[in-house]
Amino acid sequence: MKKSFLYYKTILIHTLAAILIGLIIGAVDALFGRVLLTITDFRQEHLYLLLPFLGPAGLLILFLYRKLSPKSLGGMGLIFDTGFQENKHIPKLLVPLIMLTTWITHLFGGSAGREGVAVQMGAAISHTIGRKLHVQNNARLYLLIGMAAGFAGLFQTPLAAVFFALEVLVAGSLFYEAVIPCLAASFTAGFTSHLLGLEKFSVIVSDKLVFTPDTIVKLIITAVIFGIIGGSFAWCLQAAKKRLASWFPNVYFRILITGICLSLLLLFIHQGRYTGLGTNLISAAFENQTIYPYDFLLKFGFTVITLAAGYQGGEVPPLFAIGCTAGILLGNLFGLPVALTAALGYAAVFGSATNTLLAPVIIGIEVFGPQNAVYFLIVCSIAYACNGNMTIYGRQRQYQGQEWQSRSSK
Amino acid sequence: MKKSFLYYKTILIHTLAAILIGLIIGAVDALFGRVLLTITDFRQEHLYLLLPFLGPAGLLILFLYRKLSPKSLGGMGLIFDTGFQENKHIPKLLVPLIMLTTWITHLFGGSAGREGVAVQMGAAISHTIGRKLHVQNNARLYLLIGMAAGFAGLFQTPLAAVFFALEVLVAGSLFYEAVIPCLAASFTAGFTSHLLGLEKFSVIVSDKLVFTPDTIVKLIITAVIFGIIGGSFAWCLQAAKKRLASWFPNVYFRILITGICLSLLLLFIHQGRYTGLGTNLISAAFENQTIYPYDFLLKFGFTVITLAAGYQGGEVPPLFAIGCTAGILLGNLFGLPVALTAALGYAAVFGSATNTLLAPVIIGIEVFGPQNAVYFLIVCSIAYACNGNMTIYGRQRQYQGQEWQSRSSK
């Protein structure tokens, strides 16, 4: 009974700390996100002036990291290692560096995400606060609190953020003890960034799907394809990094040449359609504007090359864009409700590329409304199983189901 | 690449086997469930004739088990041990015995569930088929397939059934590789039992909750209480078993005396209101009929004593009844939407007593419609965290989050 009391007292302390962390991270998310939106608008208006300088901008990004904090280049890998207690310190400069370099990436038209900033920044801030509290063995807990808050503040999907943090470190296991503090941090960060003017992306999908054997088979095939797309993205990203490194052993040379090639291609193929986060594609998908059948492939390719070259930002919003443009294509092909299929792709491709199952289901519910929860569960489960166990997070671990078989039952 | 191909080939074989298993288990579920409904109606009509014989009926149950297959008395514990590969054989007589003795329990008015039958029967049938297939190391997989199919066939909540099977053996870890075969088995079992005339319990809750700081605090308090109720149920059941065993070392004497006392109390307190599954209380809760403030406590007490004495059937439907009657009480007390609070209690008390998080959330979505998915997630997460880590499944294991920290990252 005593132990139990102590347990709940500890949870209470962590939860109060998590609310404070959520406030700070929500505010930083709002700052980062609003500047990023301004930058995106500015780029759209001055595309021909900015995009040609993507190569030199890459040099600047790399120079800043190498000069100021080479360790910070570890990025998400560094965060994962901290979670596994193989790294103790997250450099102080990681947060300003990742924010600044992501802004630069987007200003000059790289095709990249923004969740990398949110999650790394959240983890770094929360980790620092957790260390100051001197509560024993809490490194992993505070890391998860920070990741959840960072994700929630940026996307304003607090529940998906919690499950993303709980399941992303070790595929196939959930760190359930962190549920309450993570919920507190997530909701606080989401409210804070919302109050500070960051808006949530949300579309209500009113498509209805009739459950016939025919649609079930089509839905399963669609889900398998989403899984393959997500898995391939993770695989290609890894392969592209290796390939570029073998072609250009010099890192500066690598980012400069790749950046120049990228800027030419991005400019001449549909004039910047595939730059940035991909929110233009997502809007087009749900507002019945033109989606080309090859949109998902080009966004896929440009994002892989941008990130493999060394630009910053993350993968998630482009994955959303890839998923929903692929969904439009498959929905039309199979005669499934198009907006619903796009929404399912949005969630499922994200899940299969990050090797997570619950986060994408809940993202689906939080972004597209709960009325299709069952379809998100079915499609994301199948996609998850069909991703060939790939993940964009190279440092993610696999939970070995067999392991507990050797433990005694007491 | 070869390995990957083999992996998907294996999944395909398991999935085809799972569909066959789902068909068989769905049919058995329908048989069991429909007979149980007839028995329940028959008991309601002849309550004064049947209830007085609860004590002798207990003797018969015990006699059957002891005479025919004492090992089958292990029940859910036996299923869990098989999952952990500490038991290799599930007795052939387990299935007919658990079905028959659950019918007897309900015919004479014991307060018990029915999912024990479904899950044990499903696991036993699937385990036997899995062994015949001679695929290496698949004992656990086939056990989960069977548990999912059994649960899905009986309650016709196929997605909740999958997650229940995935998360119940080891609290805090999910056996994700089993997702696809379990989905196939679950949906097949659900469709089959539905075709054979078993109906799904479903209520659409149209209550709307306005998200104000006031309601958030009330919702959190309600969730904490649900968690305490579920945790206490698990604790009391264990304690009652020990207490009865120390009072009556002779098992026959134990079930006879306890049964006689139960039948007297069940008869005189509201004439049989607390007998059986508790579906009468659930209907009353959602059809605006009278719910007494003490309903949840009495159903709680009667169920604990019925099961501790040695009657069969399981805990889940009474837990649903306890949860939603407690929800009615708390909803009225706090001025929360009453039907919604009852629905949240239905899910959250089940989750906190079984130490599962995702299964109750998805039960909430499948039974009460997806529109309140977010509330089910919040309330079930908090209830899960506040159950004092108790569980009605004594053989359930805890996943130790620390364990993977010692593993190498490769």
UniProtKB/TrEMBL annotation, chains A, B:
It is found in: Membrane. InterPro entries: Cl-channel_core, ClC, ClC-type_chloride_channel. Its main location: membrane. The keyword Secreted does not apply. It comes from the Bacteria. Pfam families: Voltage_CLC (PF00654). Keywords: Membrane, Transmembrane, Transmembrane helix. It is a multi-pass membrane protein. The chain crosses the membrane at residues 12-35, 47-65, 141-166, 178-198, 219-240, 252-270, 291-313, 319-340. This is Chloride channel protein. It comes from Brotonthovivens ammoniilytica.
